[in-house]
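hey m, so remember when u said the tokens were messed up on ur end? i reran from scratch. heres the input so u can diff it against urs
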Amino acid sequence: MTWNAEGILSNGRELALLSLLNDNDIDVGIITETEIPTSSHGDFNVEGYHTFLPVNHSDKLKTAKYRVMVVVRSELAALTKIRPDLMHPAVQSIWIQIDLGNRVLVGGLYREWSDLPQEYAASNRVKDQMEAAAAEVDNVIFAGDINLDAARGTDKKYGRRCLLLAHDSAIAEANMRYLMTGVTYRSHGRHEREDGEARAHESILDHVYVTRDLEATVAVLTDST
């Protein structure tokens, strides 16, 4: 499961996360926009799950907050280890390895907004991570809040279209494929469109990728908040 928490320490978010995990029988959850202060040293846990956070590279960490974490069901935690060698201190990503007979690598990403040169640099680092993971094992799952609208690859008015296309190319070069989900984000308010109608803005910002030969299906949870 991947879920944008909009601040996991905000009122009610922890309970919402626990409900999502339990109600959907989730083994591994990638939680983005967590906004957990690095000064807390990762002191966050959900009942029945073990929490993994990006490795704190101390002064090399480019932010004062963790914006992505992975929670693993307690029964699987003993089979799971963090993979700091696949991470970069300038990218809000986390990788774990689960040994289930065959090794499975799971990566989570919160792609941060910045100026375009920095976003391209971060995208190249993410590409390196995916390529390294896919070259190592056949079973790779990579997901999170990519902050690129997957539905707008042909929309020339989309300001980050070139970045999206570069990201798509990186996925293909890493021998991974994108699983189409449909809408994953709706704005809280209504916005006037070109046709004059006011309605909520919809987009596909949360993505799921798997290695090309891995059998997988994807769905948007109807009970997400």
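this time it looks ok to me. The two ends are 13 Å apart (CA to CA). if urs says something different then somethings off w ur setup not the seq
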